[in-house]
Amino acid sequence: MAESLTPQTNPRTATEPIILGAIDIGTNSIHLVVVKIEPQFPSFSIIAKEKDTVRLGDRDLKTGKLTPEAIDRALAALRRCQDLALSFGAQHLLAVATSATREAPNGQDFIRDVEETLGLQINLISGPEEARRIYLGVLSGLEFTAQPHVIIDIGGGSTELILCDRQDARFLSSTKVGAVRLTQEFVHTDPITTEELTYLRAYVRGMLERPVEQILAKLKPGEVPRMIGTSGTIETLAILQARSQTDEPPNPLNGYTVSRAQLEDLTEKLAELDYDDRAVFPGMSERRAEIIVAGAVILLEAMEMLGLEEISICERALREGIIVDWMLTHQLIADKLQYQSAVRDRSVYSIAQKYHVKLDYSERVAEFAVQLFDQLHGKLHFWNENERELLWAAGMLHNSGLYISHAAHHKHSYYLIRHAELLGYTDLEVELIANIARYHRKSKPKKKHPAYHGLNKPDRQRVDQLSAILRLAVACDRRQIGAISRVHCTYDSHHDTLRLHLYPTDPNDACELELWSLDYKKDVFEEEYNVIVTATVG
Predict the structure, then answer these.
(1) Which of 418, 430, 461, 479 has an alpha carbon 20 to 30 Å from 536's alpha carbon atom?
(2) How far is CA 485 from CA 180, 367, 375, 509, 538, in A?
């Protein structure tokens, strides 16, 4: 979901350039990129960048909460980003938050504060979704060869490791080792002592062991991947290495390659220096000097564990991935990224298979749900394409809770969907899908239910109205045999009546159980939409 800064036509039919801004709210820094999208190509060019090291990850050591000081710094930085994006004529502004906001107990409070103060909507994304968007950003900035690629992005709070090729990401991971996090937790001397450095390396190896093993297991015999590094820590290390050999930094940095042996020598030198001496390195910022040793250790350990001898730099990462994802969502990209445009559908099917969902039945329920949604649009509801997709996903996964138990399986469905790490969706969208699925039967949504209560009023309304539609869709396949082929709605606004006409697959089937089920389940829908529902077959 993007904040619209100015009125804009449908991106799919636009012929004039679209100016789009993307903000990455990380643990260490807040990054803005403003791009110009040429819809007819399609492609985008970067017209402005901004970075502010706000250290949102400087959380309270006792509570883990974002501190008031960090929140104030972030708000000020986000206001500057908004102003800059608007000055370049941005029509939409996208913002995502990652590790620090995900983990902080008051992360959602921070998101609400930003929306209330600045009117800026922040989408919280999971670790795997962050990794997927990093992949999209890199794919847009480098020409991939036929060989597989391992992408590493070392942030302030987490490190993303991705195994991918030109078509898809084979493996996505996000591990809680970041340059800010590790510096706060393990580096208490300046310069770092041998004992602390040894422990730091061992900790990093332990944390990276599982994702590295999974990457190695997914490589085919004989495949040797190319390693790509993104974001501030890795870019800084590459610049430091280059400037140790020449006075000028590499230009462009994109595609510049550094060997593991060179990084080992550089890390050894950095670890021997105190902060003041590190800060005067050509190419080193003062804030980066505080965390560079921990970041360098993460990179070296990952390279050694993967058995890779060099790494190439890509200057595009999460923020550009946000742009690419928006272009995919609005059907502005085909060709080499065609496969990625179906990521939501593929992710839903993957989760459905994981929890042994009866696919033919779920597909019918999801189809009935979107049929009802489409026919009621502009009459009983005014939701858009995004809500339609959420309803479809909830329809596909509403019975996933049967994987745990038939008793109260709607509640189990909520839990499984909420923690399934669906790709292509924001954290809020996953929460909405889980809630819609949870209320496909039994009690209607109630404020005493914690997950539902935690939503804001507009999002509770989404759940209320979409789950009511899903209830009718479930009733239309009560026997789970496909007795109904399609549903047609007729809304009489003068009498507040909704007539459902069910078309049976077998003309001789009276579909009595489906009619009974609709009559039994319709009360929630009737109450929500203030209509009387009747159903006929034939």
Answers:
(1) 461
(2) 56, 10, 16, 12, 11
Q: Is the N-terminal amide bond of 211 cis, ω within 30° of 0? A: no
Bridge partners (DSSP) listed for residue 50: 32
Q: How far apart are CA 291 and CA 72, in angstroms?
A: 22
Question: Considering only CA atoms, which of 20, 11, 19 is closest in space to residue 39?
Answer: 11
Average pLDDT of the residues in 142-164: 93
Closest alpha carbon to 254 in 320, 336, 338, 199: 320
- Pair 466, 500: CB distance under 8 Å: no
d(CA 259, CA 246): 16
pLDDT tens digits, 275-329:
999 999 988 999 999 999 999 999 999 999 999 999 999 999 999 999 999 998 8
In the block, tokens 């801004």 appear at: 21
Q: What contacts 124, CB < 8 A, 6 or more positions away? A: 96, 97, 101, 102, 107, 108, 111, 426, 427, 428
Question: Can you tell me the distance from the alpha carbon of 464 to that of 436, in angstroms, rounded to the nearest whole number?
Answer: 8
Closest CA to 162 of 126, 133, 202, 201: 133
3-class secondary-structure state, position 505: coil
Q: How many angstroms separate the CA atoms of 178 and 182, rounded? A: 6
Looking at residue 165, what DSSP letter applies?
A: -
* Helix, coil or strand: residue 486: strand
Domains in the chain, please, with CATH? 3-125 (3.30.420.40), 143-315 (3.30.420.150), 344-537 (1.10.3210.10)
d(CA 214, CA 218): 6
Q: Which residue is listed with tokens 């039967």?
A: 441
Return the C-alpha torsion angle 452, 458, 459, 460, nearest 10. 30
What does the CA dihedral 39, 42, 48, 52 come to, rounded to 10 degrees?
110
Residues facing 502 on adjacent strands: 487, 537
Phi-psi region of 283 (alpha: psi -120 to 50; beta: other; left: phi over 0): left
Helix (H, G, I), strand (E, B) or coil at 93: strand
The encoded tokens of residue 94 equal 């996208």
Sign, Cα dihedral of 190, 176, 22, 463: negative
pLDDT in tens, 380-390: 999 999 999 99
- Residue 88 · residue 18 · CB < 8 Å: no
AA letter at 436 = I
pLDDT, one tens digit per residue, over 336-385 is 565 565 778 888 998 999 999 999 999 999 999 999 999 999 999 999 99
Q: Quote the pLDDT of residue 10.
A: 61
- Rounded Cα–Cα distance for residues 398 and 414 (Å): 8
97: helix, strand or coil: strand
Q: How many CA within 13 A on the CB side of residue 452?
A: 20
Phi, psi of 170 (to 5 degrees): -75, -30
Least confident of 72-86, 126-140, 209-223, 247-261: 247-261
Distances 188 to 158, 183, 290, 371 between C-alpha atoms, Å: 20, 8, 11, 60
